Amino acid sequence: MHRRRYFGLAAILAVAATPAFGQAAGPSAGAAIPDFSGIWAHPSFPGFEPPASGPGPVVNTSRRPQGADVEGRTLPPTNSILVSNPARLVGDYTNPILKPRAAEAVKRHGQLELSGAGAPTPTIQCWPEPVPYIFNGVAMEMLQQPDKITFLYPNDHQARRVRMNQPHPAKVTPSWYGDSVGRYEGDTLVIDTVGVKIGPFPMVDFYGTPYTEALHVVERYRLLDFDVGKEGLERDVKENRRPPGGADAGSAPDYSYRGKLLQLQFTVEDEGVFTMPWTATITYRRGGEAWREVACAENTRELAIAGRAAAVPHADKPDF
Amino acid sequence: MSGIPTQSSRRSFAWTIACAFSAAAFVSPAMAADGGSPIPDLGGQWGRDMLFFEPPPSGPGPIVNSVRKADGTVVLLNQCCGIVNPWAGNDTSPILKPEAAEAVRKYGELVSGGTVAQDLHNTCRPEPPPFVMALHFGVQILQRDDEVTLLYLLYNTVRHVRLNAPHPDNPAPSWQGHSVGRYEGDTLVVDTVGIKVAPVSTVDAFGTPHSPALHVVERYRLIDGEAAAEAQRKHGAIYRSNPAYGRGTIDPDTGKKGLQVEFTVEDPGVFTTPWSGRVTYRRLIGDWPEAVCAENPHFLGTDATIPTAQAPDF
Fold first, then answer.
1. What residues of chain A, 119 to 158, have a C-beta less than 8 Å from chain B?
2. Is the CB of A299 less than 8 angstroms away from the CB of B299?
3. Cα gap B55→B262, rounded to integer Å
4. β-bridge pairing B66-68 and B74-76
5. Cβ–Cβ < 8 Å for A139, A42
6. What is the SS3 assignment for chain A?
7. For residue A271, which of A89, A34, A66, A98 has the smallest C-alpha distance?
8. Is B206 touching A (CB cutoff 8 A)?
9. Does A297 touch chain B (CB under 8 A)?
10. Dihedral of CA A244/A248/A250/A255: which sign?
11. Which positions ≥6 away from B133 have C-beta within 8 Å?
């Protein structure tokens, strides 16, 4: 209930919030609405940047040498910077944020990965990716309007919608992306999400860390000067692997860009699976090129790795 | 329209006005498009509780649903767009070249026999124009200075239309093609080329194929609300206050403008002539309804399988 109050207090009428109208006043009296528009890239895998301090996300215990440095330059294959191994997603189930049930789920996921069978995730099964899982995406585009924000993610053309300056409904109907409401707090966009549906592969990350109906995610987006935000980029390359040669989906970063970075800091709480709230960041750079589509149903990497035709959804009777 | 434009003429069609708009700005109806003409406010959620393409006001039209009689004759269905089965297209349409007619005939035989032929929609793939307009019950339009974004109701389909920009010289084929647009008075004109050809690619729900030469021009404009309601009724739409899965609720207020898309399709590999069709939308009310392909109960009710991988993707 306090979540609803949290945003209910902010249910102030939206005032011409788009950057199109310049520095229009937002809910925080007189504050400028920050312009987060455009394509943002984060070609790291799995993507969550552990926080500088405090409880952080589950990380991969399987490591391999980093593929590229913070500026996207390919590193020698034998370099000594060991980061998350994308081919083996073996989560650290001893992370103190995990309650025993969650730790067991992460352990099972890792065992499947180590067995070579591969553990299912929403991504490889073509199901919607809930928050915070979807933040793992290699790119994101945010479309800001006065009453709503639409997020686009390249993986299977996923889209999330955020209602601005409104409370959550008294009774939230669970949905794939949950009920998201937002507001501006000065230079920061704050989004609060509850009501995320429990799907067939319920997890908040690539390590099988589960969630319950109590999942509550708060996102805080703000622009940072490059020299300030690069601290996040450096945390990123210490943990997440960057493919040598750049990402092959979404939008590759413009490494020459030294303008503002966009940093997402998010907090996750779920008393059903976590012992405490935890946080992480995603530090985005500007995307350097047009949006590249990723269609799950044509998953060519699956074809390459598994050596067989993908089983795509089909119907044996008409749809309508 | 005479003949198929060359790639270069398409580029010129797509305009080369490189307006230095702000990258971020959402379009306000009060803002000028060019030379002071107002930009139509097409933004928001639009729906139609119907399928397929409506006929054009004149000239060659799309393949329509038909019934095959025992003696082999084909009878066109009176209402183009009601939700009826099976989906057997009129393979005798003069717009079809012989190979395309044969594809439509085979598709019709399959579905008339109770088999569901795979298409982009029921295999959860992204859908290009004009196919995407045939089977989606809703579209959300976001207008910005430099881009119009179209989000269709079923998961997997988001289209990006770059405004006042040319097509690249050699657009890489993609599921939804390369779309550019401009405003012409009260109309948004969208030009699309570079649509990928996959085994399940069709331009409609009747198995009509396309080639890499597919070229689609869409013209979006607001129309009178009552005219939109009448167009939907006339062509088979049913008003439902509690719509089924994957459909939004149509706003019954005919005082609100409707949205009509007139589109033209050219593909010398498949069609004998350019042809046109229409799609009419009305405003949707309420929150955007989720419709996820992988959980589509119509699919899941029929032993649907979803893509799986035995090994990680990365």
1. 120, 123-128, 143-145, 150, 152, 156-158
2. no
3. 9
4. antiparallel
5. yes
6. CHHHHHHHCCCCCCCCCCHHHCCCEECCECCECCCCCEEEECCCECCCECCCCCCCCCCECCEEECCECCCCCECCCCCCCEEECCCCCCECCCCCCECHHHHHHHHHHHHHHHHCCCCCCHHHHCCCCCCCHHHHCCEEEEEECCCEEEEEECECCEEEEEEECCCCCCCCCCECCCEEEEEEECCEEEEEEECECCCCCCCCCCCCCCCCCCCEEEEEEEEECHHHHHHHHHHHHHHCECCCCCCCCECCECCCCCCCEEEEEEEEECCCCECCCEEEEEEEEEECCCCECECHHHCHHHHHHHCCCCCCCCCCCCCC
7. A98
8. no
9. yes
10. positive
11. B53, B139, B261, B263, B279
- Burial status of residue B200 (CB atoms within 10 A of its CB: 0-12, 13-18, 19 or more): middle
- Quickly count: other Cβ atoms within 10 Å of residue B181's Cβ: 22
At A225, phi and psi to the nearest 5? Answer: -55, 145
Q: Collapse the DSSP code of B32 into the 3-class scheme (helix H, G, I; strand E, B; otherwise coil) and give the result.
A: strand
Contact (CB, 8 A) for B193 and B167 = yes
A152 interaction partners in chain B (CB closer than 8 Å)? 149, 158
Predicted local distance difference test score (pLDDT) of residue B293: 78
Map tokens 């992988």 to a residue.
Answer: B294
Read off the amino acid at residue A50. P
Residue A9 has a pLDDT of: 35
Contact: B299, A313; criterion CB under 8 Å: yes
CA dist., res. B136 & res. A267, Å (int): 36
Cα-flanking dihedrals φ and ψ of residue B299, to 5°? -80, -45
Arithmetic mean of pLDDT, B159-182 = 93
Q: What is the pLDDT of residues B81-122, one digit of tens each?
A: 887 778 889 999 999 999 999 999 999 888 888 777 788 888
Q: How far is A241 from chain B (nearest CA, A)?
A: 10
Neighbours of B166 (CB within 10 A): 19
As a whole number of angstroms, the distance between CA B167 and CA A266 comes to: 39
- Whether the CB-CB separation of B138 and B152 falls below 8 Å is answered with yes
What pLDDT is attached to residue B296? Answer: 59
CB contact under 8 A, A128 and B288: no
Comparing CA positions, the residue from A122, A133, A139 lying closest to residue A248 is A139
d(CA B256, CA B234): 19
The count of other CB atoms within 10 Å of the CB of residue A116 is 10
Is any Cβ of chain A less than 8 angstroms from the Cβ of B13? no
* The two structure tokens encoding residue A204: 């908040």
Cα gap B263→B274, rounded to integer Å: 10
The phi and psi torsions of A231 (rounded to 5 degrees) equal -60, -35
Cβ burial B269-278 (10 Å sphere, 16+ → b, else e)? ebbeebbbbb
A300: its two tokens: 């060519």
* Residues in CB range of B267: below 8 A, 6 or more apart: B4, B203, B210, B211, B213, B214, B215
Check residues A245 and B173 and name the one with the higher pLDDT. B173
Interface test with A, best of B81, B150, B155, B238 (most A CBs within 10 A): B155
The rounded distance, in Å, linking the Cα atoms of A277 and B102 is: 61
| B310·A127 Cβ contact <8 A | no
Average pLDDT, 10 consecutive residues per value, chain A (320 residues): 37 36 42 89 90 97 94 91 93 98 97 88 86 92 94 88 96 94 97 94 96 98 97 96 69 84 98 98 86 68 36 46
Cβ(B260)–Cβ(B225) under 8 Å? Answer: no
Stretch 36-95 of chain B: residues touching chain A, C-beta under 8 Å = 51, 83, 85-87
